[in-house]
Amino acid sequence: MTRMHIVAGIVPALLLGACATTPPTSAQVESCRAMEGDMGLQTRHDHGEMKQQGRNPMNLSHDQCRKILRQAQ
Fold first, then answer.
1. Fewest Cβ atoms closer than 10 Å to its Cβ: which of 20, 44, 58, 68?
2. Which residues form the signal peptide (predicted)?
3. At a CB cut-off of 8 Å and minimum separation 6, what does 27 contact?
């Protein structure tokens, strides 16, 4: 393995790790609290996901808000 291959493998992991540890902004927290108040944060039954067609965008939003609200506590 060359040095370039090692660097190419490490840099994306470091960048993604930095994203995972960034705290949510107050706007994100407020938006998620509003979503929770309006419709709850439960993931709905998704036939597209069951058929390997990807996840429903609303379910992804609900999952992301659950994570944000856990971090904000």
1. 20
2. 1-27
3. none
Report phi then psi at 25, rounded to 5: -75, 165
Tell me the C-alpha distance between 66 and 47, whole Å.
22
Contact between 55 and 48 under an 8 Å Cβ cutoff? The reply is: yes
Domain range enclosing 61: 24-39+55-72
How many structural domains does the chain have? 1
The DSSP annotation for 7-55 comes to HHHHHHHHHHHHHHTSPPPHHHHHHHHHHHHHH-SPPPP-HHHHTTS--
The reply to whether 64 falls in a domain is yes
* Long-range CB contacts for residues 14-23, cutoff 8 Å, separation at least 24: 23/71
Residue 7 pLDDT class (50, 70, 90 cuts):
very low
